[in-house]
Design brief:
Layout (H helix, E strand, L loop, with lengths): L7 H10 L2 E5 L8 H11 L3 E5 L7 E2 L2 E2 L13 E4 L6 H9 L7 E4 L6 H9 L3 E3 L4 H9 L38
Parallel strand pairs: 1-2, 1-5, 5-6, 6-7
Antiparallel strand pairs: 3-4
Helix pairs in contact: 1-5, 3-4
C-alpha cells in the first residue's frame, strides 16, 4: 500500500467499520492532542479506550484507562498510536499478540514506521500513517469546512440535527460500497 497518499474511500471505509478505538498514549491533560481526539471520537459515537501505563486504573473522559493493549477486556477494532515513531514496532508486536486482531492500526500525525506497517499488513491489518482520525472524519464529513478549511469534498447535504454535536456524517462511501 502507498502510505504517502490515501484514497478517501479507504479512510472512509475504516471510519465506517470501526466501533472501538484504543488510544495508545492517551493523556488526561485536556490540552494534549490525544485528549481532544479522544473527546471528538467519543462525541461521534465511537467506544474509546485510553491506554497509558501512568494513568492505568484511572478514568480519562469517563473511560477506564489500561496500562497495555492486552489488559483491555474485549475486542478492539482500531489502535490509534499517539507515540513517537520509534515506539511503533513494540506497539505493533503487542497488537499482533492480541486475539482477535484489530482491523486497523492508525498512526497519528508525524508518526510513521514503514517496517512495522508492513508487518501489520502482512497479518491482515489495515494501516494508516501520519494522519489524524479526528481531522479525517471532519474532512470527509464536511465539518472541517465550518472552520473555513477546504476539505476537498463538495456536497449539498444538510447536516443531521440530533442531540449533542451537529454532524453531516461521513459522506464518502467506503471501498466496499456499503454506507
Amino acid at each position: 500500500m502507498n502510505h504517502d497518499s490515501y484514497d478517501n474511500a479507504y479512510i472512509s471505509g475504516i471510519l465506517h467499520a470501526v466501533k472501538s478505538v484504543a488510544v495508545v498514549g492517551a493523556s488526561a491533560n485536556d490540552v494534549r492532542p490525544s485528549f481532544f481526539v479522544m473527546k471528538y471520537l467519543l462525541d461521534k459515537g465511537y467506544q474509546v479506550i485510553p491506554v497509558n501505563p501512568g494513568q492505568a486504573g484511572r478514568e480519562i473522559l469517563g473511560q477506564m484507562t489500561y496500562a497495555r493493549l492486552s489488559d483491555i477486556p474485549g475486542a478492539i477494532d482500531m489502535v490509534d498510536i499517539f507515540r513517537a515513531s520509534d515506539a511503533v514496532p513494540g506497539i505493533v508486536e503487542e497488537v499482533l499478540a492480541l486475539d482477535p486482531l484489530p482491523k486497523v492500526i492508525w498512526m497519528q500525525l508525524t508518526v510513521r514506521h514503514d517496517e512495522a506497517a508492513a508487518r501489520a499488513e502482512a497479518a491482515g491489518i489495515k494501516v494508516v500513517m501520519n494522519r489524524c482520525p479526528k481531522i479525517e472524519y471532519g474532512r470527509l464529513s464536511g465539518e472541517i469546512g465550518w472552520n473555513g478549511v477546504n476539505s476537498g469534498v463538495l456536497s449539498s447535504r444538510k447536516p443531521v440535527m440530533r442531540t449533542g454535536f451537529q454532524s453531516y456524517g461521513l459522506r464518502t462511501k467506503p471501498e466496499d460500497g456499503k454506507p
